[in-house]
Amino acid sequence: MALLELKNVSKVFGGLTAVGNLDLTVEENQIAALIGPNGAGKTTVFNMITGAYKVSEGDITFQGERISGLKPHKIVEKGIARTFQNIRLFKKATVLENVMTGFHTKSSGGMFNIIYNPVKISREEAEIREKSIEILKFLHLEDIMGLEACNIPYGTQRLLEIGRALATGPKLLLLDEPAAGMNSTEKQELMKTIYRIRDKYHLSVLLVEHDMELVMGISENITVVNFGRRIANGTAEQVQTNPAVIEAYLGRSEE
Ligand SMILES: Nc1ncnc2c1ncn2[C@@H]1O[C@H](COP(=O)(O)OP(=O)(O)O)[C@@H](O)[C@H]1O
Ligand SMILES: [Mg+2]
To answer: What are the pLDDT digits (tens) for 218-250?
Structure first.
């Protein structure tokens, strides 16, 4: 059984089919990629998987269970976390606090507990802090954990967003253009970090990325979309030599 399965999934905005009849699977422990020219529908796919957008048609299953139709926070609870193409951090909060917010999506800090169970809350808070520091150490960000998120370099902000996603305890991590704005050293590091994350947290990664060196270097399975439609699927070697893929990329670059 695949970890994530999209079957015949479409998203229509007004008259525009942003995603059309898409089939996509991610296996357990796999690093997979979803690629395609700008506007091909990649972020829309992420928005449907995470419940931010309703699917217009089709089904999404995760660990054999239908998740299309669930609210976004339920999908996070099932074990799907994401980062955003346009970074979404709490800019005025510290690096550490940003990771802690990831844990808070699952903590018991509701109003009842805050009033009737303050000891439990402070113990839980301390645990969240410890676990957040562990993640920051793993990402080599512990030295900057006291800085405000807006004061750290752009590439590091992308890494921090991954840290916050990890704090929700995912089985599937969706990364939307994680290398955007990174220099080549940072990209090399990111590649290693993605491997390390997969191995330490025993999760699968679905990557949307324009940097072909990164995509082809680490993805075990690649799905290529153009105008919302799947035009190829396979290994890096298979998709790179696929005429429809070459056509899609060359066609767009001449625009
Ligand atoms: N909320 C929305 N309302 C209307 N159109 C949208 C919305 N989100 C995305 N689109 C359109 O869907 C298409 C795919 O967009 P997107 O998924 O962001 O592409 P990609 O991430 O591959 O660059 C684009 O034409 C975009 O304008
Ligand atoms: Mg996008």
So the answer is: 999 999 999 999 999 999 999 999 999 999 887
In sequence order, the β-bridge partners of residue 254 are none
Q: Which of 83, 130, 79 is nearest to 105 (CA)?
A: 79
Whether this prediction's pTM lies above 0.90 is answered by yes
Residue nearest to atom 18 of ligand 1 (CA): 43
pLDDT digits (tens, 9 = 90+) for 50-85: 999 999 999 999 999 999 999 999 999 999 999 999
Name the residue of 10, 13, 24, 224 to mutate for ligand 1: max ligand atoms within 8 A of Cβ.
13
99-126 burial: b if 16+ Cβ within 10 Å, else e: bbbbbeeeeebeeeeeeeeeeebeebee
Residue 142 to residue 98: CA distance in whole angstroms:
13
Q: Distance, CA 67 to ligand 1 centroid (Å)?
A: 21
